[in-house]
Amino acid sequence: MTGPTPNGAQALWQTLAAHGVGTVFGYPGGAIMPVYDALTLFPDIRHILARHEQGAIHAAEGWAKATGDLGVCLATSGPGATNLVTGLADAMMDSVPLLAITGNVARHLMGTDAFQEADITGITLPITKHNYVVQDAAELPRIVAEAIRIARSGRPGPVLVDIPKDVQLAAFSGEVHGPHAPPEAPAPLPEALEAAAALLREARKPVLMVGGGAQGAAAEVTAFARAWRLPTITTLMGLGAFPASDPLWLGMPGMHGSVAANRAISEADVLVGIGLRFDDRVTGRVKDFASHASIIHIDLDAAEISKIVRAHVPVRADAGQAARLLTERAQPLSHPEWTAALAEWRTRGEHPSHWGAAQAVRQVVSRLGPDDILSTDVGQHQMLAAQLARFQKPRRWLTSGGLGTMGFGFPAAIGAALAEPGVTSMVIAGDGGFQMTAQELATLTKYGIRNVKICVVNNSYLGMVRQWQELFHGRRYSEVYLGDSNPDFLKLADAYGISGWRADNSADLEGALDAWLAHDGSALLEVVVPNEHGVFPMVPAGAALSEMIETEPVPGGPA
Amino acid sequence: MTADQQAAPQDHLVSALVRDEPRVLTRITSLFGRRAYNIRSLSVGSTEQPGVSRMTFVVTGDRAIVEQAMKQLEKLHDVLHVIDHSLEKFVDRELVLVKVAITPESRVEVRQIAEDFRARIVDVGRRALTFEVTGDEGKVTAFIEQMRPFGILETMRTGRVALTRGSNADIPGHVYHGEKRALGPLLASAAED
Ligand SMILES: Cc1ncc(C[n+]2csc(CCOP(=O)(O)OP(=O)(O)O)c2C)c(N)n1
Question: What's the pLDDT score for residue B3?
Fold first, then answer.
């Protein structure tokens, strides 16, 4: 005997291999042990053992966001599976193609409250694109192939496949399936494209808004914007889908968007949205969003069109295809007054250059090369990075946009680092969020991952919550102080064998940045910043974009 | 939003052809619940095709809400096809069982009303009669209202079921092979305006 007889678990790995899956992130346990046992027969598949299932799934997300390709993660039943929940919800919100495989108790135990049983398909029903319980080993290859196709096709998303332990162990003698050809996106209606082109030709104050759904169509979208000379805004999820160096770029819209982007939306007469879903952090008060504009909404997901903002011209289409067809109809626009107004707004809302989180983030992101990946956690540092980084390419920016998941940034950077070992995978995290998944320092060490550069911006607070308490809760700082109990981040890194640097002023930061980036291997940089800085511009929640606060109010100034 | 979309909530009759798989009902009701769409009635049954079930919903809301509910439904892998019955002529029926209290004095009158409605007596008790009525929603409601003064002990309505009129099937053939109908470039109703 050379090995165990073929079983469901082996069929799973064969199917994954047939789909080109080479790396999976996971954590074992009783109910998934046959799958881990079968893994030993597949030396070409790399399994990355995280320190927490949340770390595994965010790493799979980072892999998927950086490559545009499927991320795969694995967990056992019960607590292992429920630890995936946050990542699944995150992937659902941000349309990340993801396959999560969970073990479950044997079929005859399902529904009996057996040890480590959880109804994970029930739990994840609203936060997956689809999910399955495999009832028969013979069905495994078909189901996994179908799950992968669903995760990847149309608007991508997470799919969960739950496999009872006895199904993993059941004898398997069938065929495995390679990838199905993905269904083709429906061609946009010619009438809709004509209507869009006609609106654009008439526009006096046009603006193009590009979302995360266009990350895979950056070239086409950029050509479209340039051919029509459309001033272009990239949403938080769309950063990099249009090059920041282009003079047409206006920055990011929304709550912490640029003055230029938000003014442009408020004044525009035609707004083209492509691959975006008009999130409330983008629109501000919806009734006043782009209230002078005719809206052209291009999206593959019909349900996003007119969900929040009524589209005057709905175009259901793949972003790249629609952009290409609209480029063919292009007539370069020339609106000197509009251009002049935008140029004036562009100079507004700049961050002060004195020492603080904004200055620190500016210095850090200025070190990114065009191919480097920047991932962030959630909070002030995230919004500062989104405002200050200048992305020239798509898929270089990984952030939890829809769910706003603290703990996302660091493991996502690990996933991206493994996907692209040749580039720097930088993460900027807050002192709060970093501690939610800091245990993944072990993953760096275990696999000798050398290209993750962690920057912890330490303001001793849950900064973003503190900012809201300052602005909207009369400075009552309730349960947001971390400074009395934060670890020594350098010692923490050191405990895992990771080198670290620290800086608390602009000049020292330059030196620390040199050393941190030059270090041959993953490394941590702690940047200590003043505690009470805010992120501006800011549109207060529920306000209109035109009601934005452009710069940080002067402390002690008029209330 | 146009005035028409802000109009008072209305009932909309929508059918969905779905795969007959575990959890389909949960998946659909969870979608409705999560997005706060109000389902007034829901009927589910098998179709002439093995593996395909048909659901008919009555969704309450303005047009924009119903349109959104349909688009969200269409996205589900298990949903093969969605039909908005307001776009074509349709027949719809509902079945109700009504248990009406009777006295020696009221017995004859109750039976007479039931006959007018072509209600069938399906159970006879000493102090109550149970009727079965089939018809469109208006007829069923009218019957219940007529019986109310006598004392209704219990009712059970099935919820509406509907089919498009005419000789064409509602459903494109390939749906019955378990294939999802590719969504059109855009749902027709969304393109108006
Ligand atoms: C898992 C999770 N819990 C809570 C929150 C709410 N939240 C949003 S920002 C924030 C503060 C983040 O603080 P820190 O990580 O130190 O970053 P900073 O804002 O200071 O840059 C919190 C608690 C969240 N987004 N995610």
Answer: 44
- In this prediction the ipTM stands at 0.89
As a whole number of angstroms, the distance between CA A274 and CA A313 comes to 12
Pull the structure tokens for residue A6: 């073929």
**CB of A102 closer than 6 A to ligand 1?**
no
| CB of A430 closer than 6 angstroms to any ligand 1 atom | yes
pLDDT of residue B187: 41
Task: Give tens-digit pLDDT for A261-293.
Answer: 999 999 999 999 999 999 999 999 999 999 999
> What pLDDT score does B170 carry?
67
What residue type is assigned to position A159 of the chain? V
Q: Please, are residues A471 and A465 in contact by the beta-carbon 8 Å criterion? A: no
Which residue from A37, A35, A31 is spatially nearest to A12, judged by alpha carbons?
A: A35
Could you say which DSSP state residue A351 is in?
Answer: P
Residues 6+ apart with CB under 8 A from A150: A129, A130, A157, A159, B77
Give the active site residues of A.
53, 115-116, 165, 464
Ligand 1 atom 1 nearest Cα: A406
Provide CB contacts within 8 A for A267, sequence distance 6+: A205, A292, A341
Give the model confidence (pLDDT) of A24-43 as tens digits: 999 999 999 999 999 999 99
Q: Are the C-beta atoms of residues A55 and A411 closer than 8 Å to each other?
A: yes
**Atom 23 (ligand 1): residue with closest C-alpha?**
A462
Q: pLDDT at position B5, please?
A: 46
Cβ A391 under 6 angstroms from ligand 1: no
Average pLDDT over residues B145-155: 97
Strands A23-26 and A499-503: unpaired
Residue among B72, B77, B186 whose CB faces A314 most closely? B186
Q: Is A36 helix (H, G, I), strand (E, B) or coil?
A: helix
pTM of the model: 0.95
Render pLDDT for A432-452 as a digit per residue (tens, 0 to 9): 999 999 999 999 999 999 999
- End-to-end CA distance of chain A, in Å? 80
State both tokens at A453.
């550069």
Which tens digits make up the pLDDT trace of A474-515? 999 999 999 999 999 999 999 999 999 999 999 999 999 999
What is the pLDDT at residue B87?
86
pLDDT digits (tens, 9 = 90+) for A197-238: 999 999 999 999 999 999 999 999 999 999 999 999 999 999
* B101 burial type by CB count under 10 A (0-12 exposed, 13-18 middle, 19+ buried): middle
DSSP conformation class of A366: T
Query: What would the two tokens of residue A343 be?
Result: 């140029």
Alpha-carbon distances, residue A363 vs A384, A431, A458, A509 (angstroms): 11, 18, 15, 8
In this prediction, residue A180 carries a pLDDT of 82
Q: Are A294 and A317 in contact (CB under 8 A)?
A: no
Q: How far apart are the first and last CA of chain B?
A: 9
Of all residues in chain A, the percent with pLDDT exceeding 90 is 93
SS3 B105: coil
Mention every residue, 6+ apart, whose C-beta is less than 8 A from residue A83: A27, A52, A53, A54, A57, A75
What is d(CA A380, CA A466) in angstroms, rounded to the nearest whole number?
10
Q: Give Cβ neighbours of residue A501 (< 8 Å, ≥ 6 apart).
A: A490, A512, A515, A516, A523, A524, A525, A526
Asked if A93 and A57 touch (Cβ cutoff 8 Å), the reply is no
Q: Return the DSSP state at A177.
A: -
Instruction: Give the number of beta-carbon pairs within 8 Å between A and B.
Output: 64
* Contacts with B, A 303-332, CB within 8 Å: 303, 305-307, 310-312, 314-317
Nearest CA in chain A to B72: A303
